[in-house]
Amino acid sequence: MGQVKLIVSNWKMNLNLLNSKNLIDDILKIRHSESFKHIICPQHLLIPSISGLLRDSKIIIGAQDCHYEKNGAFTGDTGVDLLKDYDCEYVILGHSERRNYHKEDNKLIKKKVDLVISANLKPIICVGETITERKSNKYLEILGNQLDLCIPNKSEEIIIAYEPVWSIGTGLVPSYEEINEIYDFTDKFLKNKKMTRKLNFLYGGSINSENFKEIVNKTKVNGALIGGASLKTTEMKKILTFC
Fold it and tell me: Any catalytic annotation for residue 156?
């Protein structure tokens, strides 16, 4: 396993102005390693505040989603230009919660990916299978379909976050062999399709400070997409210190 390159904190729909500031204050006190990037993705209304707090730090701000059009009559959505105004550099796209609760399909996600890249932002593209798809042994077919339909051709760099749906928030984590299988499948798939020159492969799903260390040491991943643990100073201190 090489050096960890990306640690992505996905705060989801959590925290308010006060406790998010307190969490950032605590995180800024942690001595961050030079071997990785730490990206924090708050909910949209927190982005202006968090962007200001991080402005003089090495921590990068990202977004949890964006619309597939730059602007227009899309009530409740957020465009990429506004994200750029607040220094966002990364956007999480295709998360299973967006696919499930907002009925986003691969075609829609691809449109978002294309727009994000055209805006010179970096998409973090989430893929993953349900427990039914895994048990029926269709998970590679499902993942291949997601990769094929969500990723543009001939990108210089692609960031894939593998988040098995059955692992998110459940405490269940794939074995090291299962994670490596998905890495190998993804790497081979993208190379065969000539989709990218460089793959950054993150793992997400019930990540905490203990299993993070094991996953980093025993699999081929070069980063993590962290949910609940990213809201806890004690957890992030252990993760960021380990890196």
Answer: no
